[in-house]
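Section 5: illustrative case.
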């Protein structure tokens, strides 16, 4: 196609009989497609990292918070903390995650996953023994 033909196609108005008419089924399938497109998980940046922590004191939870502010996910193993310090750490990180519109999930006994808003988490880990039998 020559430049003149391309220009003519751009400048020529569309005739009424050139419009595409869709059936109701086609319209529904398009809306399903648009719904699927809206639910597609955005691609993560190539430098996205997950940090693993095993704090030995409450003060180390501030380092976890810094990584969350940098839009990095963190898995925190609380096994080495005394029970009251582990609870204090969970409370602190819950506040940090809330402030960042992120999420926090228990993924094991004394293990939590903290993610910023930019990193989505799908699925669920069951902690009930009854669920393991079925």
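Designed sequence:
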């Amino acid at each position: 196609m020559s430049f003149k033909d391309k220009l003519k196609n751009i400048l020529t108005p569309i005739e009424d009989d050139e419009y595409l008419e869709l059936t109701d089924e086609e319209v529904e399938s398009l809306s399903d497609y648009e719904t699927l497109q809206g639910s597609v998980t955005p691609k993560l940046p190539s430098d996205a990292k997950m940090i693993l922590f095993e704090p030995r004191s409450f003060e180390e939870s501030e380092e976890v918070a810094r990584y969350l502010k940098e839009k990095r996910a963190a898995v925190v193993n609380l096994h080495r903390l005394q029970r009251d310090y582990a609870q204090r750490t969970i409370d602190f990180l819950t506040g940090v995650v809330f402030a960042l519109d992120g999420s926090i999930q228990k993924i094991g006994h004394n293990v939590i996953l903290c993610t910023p808003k930019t990193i989505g988490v799908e699925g669920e880990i069951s902690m009930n023994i009854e669920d393991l039998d079925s």
